[in-house]
């Protein structure tokens, strides 16, 4: 039985899902994988079901109807994991923008005392490959904006490559996490820090997807931009125990 599970949310990831699953299972440390698929019309779920016969007891699939957003997919996965005996719960994209080899480093950081370990693009300069400069600048300055508004000392606030100790997910009231796009990542980091958890950043190299289609949109960016202000204001009226 592994004490670590990687949640991979998917929507139309048929080009990547089998490769990323096989890569995770090839690592020297033992990880389980939970795919949360939002009814992908391209057959992503069917690929995972086929692989379950090969990786019995290590690969799990939760299928939802309709595309409901990144945040709700992760919260669905968190709740699934909390009811089981996993000690370390990971977020990771399906498209290899996050290097699965770094799962081991994030886990080691939590084993060494971190409550939440973030795979960070901006600890040692800007470690991003294959992004246009416009997107690099948008992401980099977005994290600066988050630090300015919220006061949290996180260099990569929108990062989606994360390891949580289960105590973090048991403490944060997941039903109160309101954002569904990339602002979800900001809200989880902000809330973990407000609850007093030890949040650290581990430098990684982020490589943009080479297959499949990006899920970034203007609406998602706007949610993050305006949502940060609302999140900070709401925190003034909320008690963190």
Automatic annotation (TrEMBL):
Similarity section: Belongs to the glycosyltransferase 2 family.
One Gene Ontology cellular component: membrane
Organism: Parapedobacter pyrenivorans
Entry's Gene Ontology BP terms: glycolipid biosynthetic process
InterPro entries in the cross-refs: DPM1-like (IPR039528), Glyco_trans_2-like (IPR001173), Nucleotide-diphossugar_trans (IPR029044)
Gene3D superfamilies, alphabetized: Spore Coat Polysaccharide Biosynthesis Protein SpsA, Chain A (3.90.550.10)
Identification of the protein by name: Dolichol-phosphate mannosyltransferase
Entry GO MF terms: dolichyl-phosphate beta-D-mannosyltransferase activity
Ranges for domain Glycosyltransferase 2-like: 6-171
Keywords: Glycosyltransferase, Transferase
Pfam families: Glycos_transf_2
The UniProt record lists the keyword Transferase: yes
């Amino acid at each position: 039985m592994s004490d670590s599970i990687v949640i991979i949310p998917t929507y139309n990831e048929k080009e990547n899902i089998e490769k990323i699953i096989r890569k995770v299972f090839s690592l020297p440390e033992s990880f389980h994988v939970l795919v949360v698929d939002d009814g992908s019309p391209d057959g992503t779920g069917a690929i995972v079901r086929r692989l379950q016969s090969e990786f019995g007891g290590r690969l799990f699939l939760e299928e939802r109807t309709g595309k409901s957003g990144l945040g709700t997919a992760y919260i669905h996965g968190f709740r699934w994991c909390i009811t089981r005996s996993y000690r370390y719960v990971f977020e990771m994209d399906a498209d290899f923008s996050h290097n699965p080899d770094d799962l081991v480093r994030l886990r080691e950081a939590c084993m060494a005392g971190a409550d939440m370990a973030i795979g960070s693009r901006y600890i040692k300069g800007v470690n991003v490959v294959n992004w246009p400069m416009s997107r690099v600048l948008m992401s980099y300055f977005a994290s600066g904006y988050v630090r300015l508004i919220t006061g949290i000392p996180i260099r990569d606030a929108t990062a989606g490559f994360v390891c949580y100790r289960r105590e973090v997910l048991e403490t944060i009231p997941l039903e109160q996490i309101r954002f569904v796009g990339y602002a979800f990542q900001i809200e989880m980091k902000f809330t973990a820090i407000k609850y007093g958890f030890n949040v650290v950043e581990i430098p990684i190299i982020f490589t943009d997807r080479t297959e499949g289609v990006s899920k970034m949109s203007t609406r998602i960016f706007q949610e993050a931009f305006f949502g940060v202000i609302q999140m900070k204001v709401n925190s003034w009226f909320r008690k963190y125990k």
